[in-house]
Amino acid sequence: MRPNTSFPMETIKPTRVQTQQLQGSATIPFRYRILLYLSIILLAIDLGINTFSEYLATSEYIQLIIFIVQDVCILLSITLLILMVLTTYVAQAGLLCLLLRMFRFSIVTACIYFALCAAIQTVILIPRFQLKHRVPNIFSRKEVLILYVIQRTFSAFHYYAMKRAAYRLSDPNFYQSSQWLKKIWEQRRMAFTSTTMNTVSGLQPGTPTTRIICCAIQ
Q: Where are its TM segments located (predicted)?
């Protein structure tokens, strides 16, 4: 007698959750791969400018153009990071403050790096435009050299923070309903319920109940 090798349909048919997870893992890399590559390209351009700007600038005007390109790349990197955060499912579900806390290190680091770049560019360009030619030994000034070293050293933290945020945002949990998101909503509901009960139990008879209850996610 030939054994029955057929399996029930329930054992081979994927569930709805598994189907959504497979679809999410298939579409999310395609959707955000361009943003990830663009972020890496902007960081590479900034790294190249930090490395070769003094060799490529044959005049003060070329130096100005190079610095403008660098500032635009930094601003685009910050804008791209904020855009990637805002387009996540978690942000659209009302947990934008949670995402901002998760990626505040990258955002703050990028803003500080932009300020350092603007400062070093200013102290380099002002003498060159005042003297109408390229100053051969601009780093002989102590304040310029110190600011230059600080800016170049801090750039490593900027590159690390931006790449870390970009790769972290490629997690499918940010773009679909998941157990992680459900757990956060459950914590928020329990915290709101506990705060409401404590507030109601602490009210005196006849006291108006018009209070604003703030709920924060730890």
A: 34-52, 64-91, 103-124
Question: Which DSSP string corresponds to the chain?
Answer: --------HHHHSPPHHHHHHHHHHHHHHHHHHHHHHHHHHHHHHHHHHHHHHHHH-SSHHHHHHHHHHHHHHHHHHHHHHHHHHHTSHHHHTT-HHHHHHHTHHHHHHHHHHHHHHHHHHHHHHHHHHHHTS--TTGGGSHHHHHHHHHHHHHHHHHHHHHHHHHHHTT-GGGSS--HHHHHHHHHHHHHHHHHHHHHHHTPPTT------------
Spans of the chain, pLDDT less than 50: 1, 5-14, 17-22, 24-25, 27, 29, 207-218
Compute the chain's Rg from CA coordinates: 27
- What's the pLDDT at 98? 80
Which residue in the block uniquely carries the two structure tokens 């490593």?
156
